[in-house]
Amino acid sequence: MIAAMKHFISLLIFTMLFFLPVLPSAASPLSAAAAGEQYAYVPDGDVWFYAGETESSRVFLLPKTYYVKILGEGEKYCRVEYLIDEAPYKKVTGYCRTEDIIPVDYVPVRPYLKKQITLSYSLPAGTGSLGGSFSSVEKTFVYYGLRYDGAKLYYYVLSDDTFDYISAESEAVFDLNTDYSEYIASIEASTQGGSTGETPPSGSPNAAVIAVICLACAAAVAAAVFVVKGKKTPPPDDQEEE
Questions:
Q1: 64 pLDDT exceeds 70?
Q2: CA gap 21, 205 in Å, rounded
Q3: pLDDT(21) > 80
Q4: Spatial distance between the Cα atoms of 31 and 38, rounded to a whole number of angstroms
Q5: pLDDT in tens, 186-212
Q6: How do strand 67-72 and strand 39-41 relate by DSSP bridges?
Q7: Burial class (CB in 10 A: 0-12, 13-18, 19+), 141
Q8: Is the pLDDT of residue 179 over 60?
Q9: Contact in structure between 30 and 111 (CB atoms under 8 Å)
Q10: Which of 100, 135, 142 is nearest to 121 (CA)?
Q11: For residue 120, what are the contacts with CB-CB under 8 A and spacing of at least 6?
């Protein structure tokens, strides 16, 4: 009987372990940070990319909601990398103020803004073709960011392996990166979902599973009590009676 009880309890423990889910982590479409890779979020449009660790070495304002890869952390400046070496794009290495960026512990799905802009230039009269067919030209650039010089707006761009500024009439329009906001929302949902009446995340135990486990536990306790009560007390030794 005891051997059977032990077998039943072992089976019960195995069943509970099978049905109990692994506690879910915060739902996120982002991948875990790879060894040696750390990114930082650019929260607004006032984060500068610097050529050196001085305020006078400002190059351009990074696109907000995107990221830089951190190469080295410092108290005032972090050494960073932006974009990748993948034609027509080219990565640049520089610095950001440490307090301006937000380090994250995941690899974003879209860390960098990959944007190209095409500008049309009209040639002065008499400098184009005789028939006027080529009186204007178009040029495509890789967009990195922007900066103002007084009231004048410039884009920082790449063309034919050359970085430079070109004048612009208005700030570039691009889709904002939602990786960070979705990550924060998923954290809040996972920590508050249980108290707000929201549907539990996938993998959470439902009422039926909990009921089965409770009944199994009750049955195990009852069986254990039955075994203990059913065990007879051995008769006293004749020597002890004398």
A1: yes
A2: 7
A3: no
A4: 12
A5: 888 888 765 444 444 444 444 444 555
A6: antiparallel
A7: buried
A8: yes
A9: no
A10: 135
A11: 136, 137, 138
